[in-house]
Structure formats: C-alpha cells, structure tokens
Write a structure and sequence with these properties.
The complex is a heterotetramer, with two copies of chain A (about 80 residues) and two copies of chain B (about 150 residues). Helix content of chain A is about 30%, strand content about 25%. Chain A has a single domain, classed as Beta-grasp domain (Ubiquitin-like (UB roll)). A five-stranded mixed sheet of chain A has the order 2-1-5-3-4. With about 80 residues, chain A is α+β, with helices and mostly antiparallel strands. The radius of gyration of chain A is 12 Å and the shape is globular. In chain B, α2 packs antiparallel against α3. Chain B is elongated. The chains are: A alpha+beta (about 80), B alpha+beta (about 150).
Chain lengths: ~80, ~150, ~150, ~80
C-alpha cells in the first residue's frame, strides 16, 4: 500500500521551535494518530515533554490516539492552550 | 455572535447583542491583560490561534452552554495579535431570564474556552523576550477530548 | 462609584471605572426589565427608594464584598423612577486579579443588594394598574438585620 | 416624663395605603422599636400582615425590636425590598 503523506500544522512554542508552521511526515498506510505521535517524538526527541502534552486535531476536531488517518486529513498538533 | 478578531473588542456591542425583553439578567465577562504574571512583569501579550478550529470549538462551547441552560443568549469574542496591558483579550456576554443561569453559563463558557479552544498566548517581558504559555495543569492528550472545566 | 440615578445607566462607564492593569478579570451584571413576571405582562416598572439609607446600604454591601475579596474593585448603580421593558435597572461591575473572585464578588453584591437595600419596584400592567412587589420570602423583621443571601 | 414624638417614614405599598409618606406617632418615653411596631399594628390593623413583615430603620440603619428610641431619631418602616 502507498505510504500516507501528512502535513502537520504547528502552533505556538512548537511552531517557533521548528521554525516552521508545518512539518511533513510519511506514515504507513492505515497509520493512527498514536503512530503519528510516536513518529514526531522520534524526529524531535528534544521536545518530547511538550509533544507528549499536545493534543492532536484531525479535520479541526480533537482526535483520540486510536483514530486512523486518511489521505487529505487536516492534522494539527495542539500544545496546551492558554487563551482567555 | 461568535468570532475571533484582530481589532479592539467592543464589549458594549457584544452585550447589546444578547439583551432580550424576556430576560432579566445579563452577565458580561472580560479577560484583560495583566501587568504581571506571578513575579514576572508583562509588557504585552501576543495571541495566536488555530483559527478555523478555534471558531468551531467556540461554537461548540456556546452550544454546550445553551443545551445546559436552554433559555440563554450567548455572545463570545476572542482577540488575536498583540495586546497591550489593560486591553480586553476575551469577552463573554450572556443574557437569561434570571441571574443564576446567566452567571452559571458565563462562567462555564469562559472556563471551557480556557481549557479547550486552540488559542495560545506569548508573554513578552519589558526586555522584549517572550515565552509561550503552555499550562502544565492541562494535559490535552489524556483524555484526548478536553471537556468542561466546571 | 456607588450611586442611585434617575438617568439611563451607562454600564460601559461603570465597567471602565473598575478596570485595573493589575487585574485580569472583569464581571459585569445588569438587571433588566422583563416584559412579564410569571403569567403577568409588564408594561413598565417604577422604582422607589429610601434614598439616603439605600446609598448607605449599597456602600455596606460593597465594603462587605471587599472585605471578603480584598483585591476587588467594585462599582454599583441602581436606577430609580419609571423604567420601560428592556431598560437596565441595576448594574454591578467588579474587577479582580482572577476570574473566580470577580464572579463571586459580583454575585454576592447583587444577591445582597436584592435582600437588604431599601428599594422597591411597582409593576405596571398593560391596563395601567400597578402592584408593589414585597416578596413573601424576605422576612425583614426577623432577624432584624437582613444579611447576605449568598 | 415627656412622651416621645416620632415621625415614621413610609414607602411603597404602605406609603400608598396611608396616602402619606409619613405618619406621626406618640410613644411613651423610653419606648423601643418593638413598642412602635405594636402601636402601628393597633392603628392600622387592616395592614397587620404587611406591617409584621416590615423592618424598622432608625437613623438609616436596620434596628432590632429591643432598641430604644430617642427624640430626633429618623425612623422608617421598610417593607420587604424588591430592588435589583
């Protein structure tokens, strides 16, 4: 099966740390939100603590680790929020 | 009336938008930029949002409040960009037949917004250095779906 | 800023009067004239006060709130005379370092005002007949000193 | 001893019922707030229910039944309040 190409949106401290508002990831077909988290921690071990405290949003809604990703999904990493 | 804005918040317009001749109570909450956080002096704040999702979550929060307090009218606006000390960052206006629901719904909306809506602030000190605020007491990955803080 | 007035209440001025760069939260409460009370349609209200005592009691309520929540700034105004449906009869503005105190103090002030401050309203129906409201659930003679409803 | 002359302020339903914003009472010297209440109920038995639910203010502060009245006191009957 074709690998899954996902562009992940980054915000706030993560966006500044990566010096980019997106990061492109290549995941196995049928990968889940949890798989995406693990790949990010492997790529950026120095930000592990913050990454583990992030939520993941898929198509603008919070998504559980078990949720499968699909080509074309809009994916974002949501660090702990501080609006208000 | 639910929105993000880069302009100064007109809280009087927001309040007028929820007033209703069948309602006896209006409660307005304003979040304003403090000149310090703990020991740290603040010169200004920068607010960033995942805008499309933030507006969806803001609507979800308001809908959840209106399910719980069905007779309320609610308006919610959050500012983005650079804010000076004293400026209004967020405003919640609620009207209801009686004051108990108006207070409860207003408190619910601001508490839930602060826990779930993807907006972040960076505190800029007098020396120009800044730090993003990512509160340690909110773990957003577990449970995956942050719910009401009430 | 604690007063009785016969003019329309400018709640924006009241809100601005309590804002403070050291405070992160403002809560405003407005009481507004409803178009009905239970089954009864209301055309307008007439508010009467024992003015000198009402202003003293309003100051007492605000002082009690500030003893309990020492960092708050509080403004309170009540309208007298004839009010049409939709008009603001009372406004309470509170600012505080954090929102919990602002909500609590605002709720305390309006609840205590409604229980202790000598102001009365007469409900006028569409046919022009009126009735003074003297709630049965407030017994003011026992105990002699009505205290907080919170 | 000289009797005590007290002018009592009336508000709201009581003011309208009495068609006057004050009522003049003559009380024994050393009379208390409770004595004043009793005299009012004797004068206006038809408004007893409302009178019993009123507070009494002396010099613009709520006063207990035991409080003694003094010449020159500013006295008011406070029906259950309905501001807000």
């Amino acid at each position: 099966m074709k690998p899954l190409l996902i562009e992940v949106r980054l915000f706030a401290a993560l966006r500044e740390a990566a010096a980019s508002s997106t990061v492109a990831l290549e995941l196995p077909a049928n990968a889940t939100v949890g798989d995406l988290r693990q790949l990010l921690v492997r790529r950026w071990p120095q930000w592990r603590t913050l990454l583990e405290r992030c939520a993941v949003a898929v198509n603008q809604a919070y998504a559980p680790d078990q949720q499968r990703l699909t080509a074309g999904d809009e994916v974002a990493l949501i660090p702990p929020v501080s609006g208000g | 009336m639910i929105s993000l804005t880069r302009q100064a918040i007109d809280y009087q317009a927001l309040t007028e938008a929820v007033r209703d001749p069948q309602h006896g109570a209006v409660v307005l909450f304003l979040g304003t930029v403090r000149d310090r956080t703990g020991e740290q002096a603040t010169a200004r704040l920068e607010y960033e949002a995942y805008a499309a999702m933030a507006e969806r979550e803001m609507r979800r929060v308001v809908e959840a409040a209106q399910q719980r307090w069905p007779q309320t009218r609610i308006a919610l606006i959050h500012r983005l960009g650079t804010l000076e000390v004293g400026e209004v960052s967020v405003a919640v206006a609620v009207s209801a037949p009686h004051r108990a629901e108006a207070f409860a719904a207003c408190r619910y909306v601001i508490d839930t917004l602060k826990a779930t809506v993807p907006i972040w602030k960076k505190e800029i000190g007098p020396d120009g250095t800044g730090e993003w605020v990512h509160p340690a007491d909110i773990s957003m990955s577990d449970p995956f779906r942050p719910e009401s803080a009430v």
